[in-house]
Amino acid sequence: MPETMTSHPKHNQSKRRSPAWSHVRAAVAVFALLLLAATVGIHAQDPVKPEAGNGAEKPKGDDVKTGRDGHDRPTTYPKIKFGGKKAGDGDGPKVADTKLKIRVYLLDISNAMAKSITVDESRETTRLEHMITQMERSLDALAKRKDPRVRFNIVTFGSVQDFAEGDEPQAATDENAKRAKEWLKKLEAKGEADIYTMLSECYEQEPESATMIVGGMPSAPAKLDDELQKLFDKEENAGEFLIKQIKEWRAAGKKTTLDITGVGLSADEKAYYKRLAEAAGGTYLDA
After folding, report:
1. What's the total number of domains in the chain?
2. Non-local CB neighbours of 111 within 8 Å, separated by 6+ positions
3. Distance CA 75, CA 184 (A)
4. Which pLDDT score, from 0 to 100, does residue 77 have?
5. Which of 50-64, 82-96, 106-120, 234-248 shows the lowest mean pLDDT across its residues?
6. Residue at 55 is within a domain
7. Most buried pick, 49, 178, 272, 278, via CB within 10 A?
8. Coil vs helix vs strand at 259
9. Residues 241 and 231: beta-carbon distance below 8 Å
């Protein structure tokens, strides 16, 4: 499917492929998401070759915003359970919880997800609608496992929401999968893709793994302390800052692996997210 412009100023349109090839790519993307659900708790870390890429340009001067749609409430993410143990939450997990298999989905519902894409060379849809379709299939596959140890949560960025509403990750039952699909249909694309703020809390809680679905480049973080702001100012853009931070978190012992699925991304954006996934010990896929 042709990729369209998101937040980066320079984009290359992909060459049109035959309908048959598009059907093959769509089938592969769906299979990949189903495979992620089927293998929850067993996380692949295939090496990905780094490619050149760049992120959204940093705002300068008067362009810097102190508040963003979805990030004017800086305490929201700490109230969300990403599936790991948050620092300070007691001495350790309960014995009964040690065998739980957690799947956390991190979904982009920023302004970029309102952009239109073409699926199978003919069907027009939005990035958000296409992502929801992929998520519905993944949730169905998760529920069909009938594994009482499997738990999941869905967290959004652009505007901050989570399916569990601050509670623990939910059991992967048919009922919860149905509720999650209804919840997904109510999502709207708005706000900026402040991926750093979300991932910083995710890595603080340290779930074993996470799957992020994106439709555009990272935006500048809404709020940084003075030390982080100095580090941010040294980087070329928000994307490079994010890669550096993830490398530092993992070097400090954070073990969360991050798989990334792109929806309607340009060639440059795909290259960037392959680098980000590699830095996070995960893999990149197209949806």
Report:
1. 1
2. 158, 189, 190, 191, 192, 216
3. 23
4. 72
5. 50-64
6. no
7. 272
8. strand
9. yes
